[in-house]
Amino acid sequence: MAVSFGSLKPVQLFDTLDILGEGTTLLVACLWLGLIISSRPAGPVTEWLYYGSLLLMYSYFLDLLDEFIRYPDTLRLMSWLESLPAPVGMLLLTYGLVGWHREQRSIDRQLRGRELFLRDHHLIDPLTQLYGADYLHAVLGREIALHRSQHKPLSLLLLDIDDFAGFNRRCGIAAGDNYLGQLSELLSSQLRHSDVICRYSGDRFVAVLPDTSDVQAQIMRQHLQQHLSMLCKDDNQPQLTLVCSSVSQSSAAAALQAALNAVTTARRQHAPLTVQNA
After folding, report:
1. Which residues of 36-50 are buried (b: 16+ CB within 10 A; e: fewer)?
2. CB of 155 within 8 A of CB of 247?
3. Pair 186, 110: CB distance under 8 Å
4. Cα(182)–Cα(203) distance, integer angstroms
5. CA dihedral angle for residue 63, residue 69, residue 70, residue 74, rounded to 10 degrees
6. Which residues cross the membrane (predicted)?
7. Which residues contact 262 (CB under 8 A, 6 or more apart)?
């Protein structure tokens, strides 16, 4: 389209320095876009970063094209197309970076909370960097004691990956490990810093939600469901079962068993990303 609006400049009018500078800027924008696509999990923050980088790349491309093509002075369209996407792209990128910063702060709080509460590294799952079942039982037992003595509300979220072993057989162990990493990162970024997220078993994650009533847990479940549904868009990805449980039991084992029973009930009427209140 740009070529049809203008004419190619003579070679002697090419400005090598401008071409080098603008070409480098375009290349950097392309690299940003590639890094976002390859390293970010799916979600709203990634979309803001993606579209912001795309608009910048488009603007820089037209800016570079301007070094090779001369447009009539009366044609303002190309000038607008060259100028307008850049500030819009910068705004989208800024909004996305703010969201990314919030995610990282949430993940950092999770890491600091783990370090302050217990420095026993054998309790950490090496793959997801979340605490495992032993830590979950210890924390849940402590929270149940507080719940019973101080009458504070307590809830659980349990996320179960359906037929994870089958997914590993179809796609390979590396793909399975990558999927678990995406899930742990999503959970750490979307839940509160006061919540304790653990990998309960190979295909299950449990979040302990202190001072959280059933209504609040329902809201958190719906919020988490929206983000998790993005991981289930691909037919090749395993389906997820998410249950929300208000804790009324007197022991950690009983509370976890109640949540596991809710998973079993949810699977009987299974649909993609089943969500049920236990």
Report:
1. beeebbebebbbbbb
2. yes
3. no
4. 13
5. -60
6. 19-36, 48-65, 77-100
7. 158, 243, 245, 276, 277, 278
- The pTM score is 0.55
Angle at which helices 214-228 and 173-190 cross, to 10°? 140
Where do the domains of the chain lie? 2-105, 122-277
Residue 239 in tokens: 């389906």
Of 253, 252, 225, the C-alpha closest to 239 is 225
Widest distance between CA atoms in the chain? 84
Looking up tokens 């709203």 gives 44
Task: Report the alpha-carbon distance of residue 253 to residue 244 in Å, rounded.
Answer: 16
Tokens of 143: 């929270």
122-277: CATH class: alpha beta
Q: How do the pLDDT tens digits run along the chain, 278 residues long?
A: 445 555 566 666 666 776 777 778 878 888 877 877 777 777 787 788 888 888 877 777 777 766 666 655 555 555 666 667 777 878 887 888 888 777 777 666 665 655 555 545 557 777 888 888 888 898 898 889 888 887 888 999 999 888 888 888 888 888 888 888 888 888 888 888 888 899 888 888 999 999 888 888 888 888 888 887 776 666 677 888 888 888 888 888 999 888 888 888 877 765 444 434 44
Sign of CA dihedral 42, 182, 192, 92: negative
- Give the residue carrying structure tokens 């939600």: 209
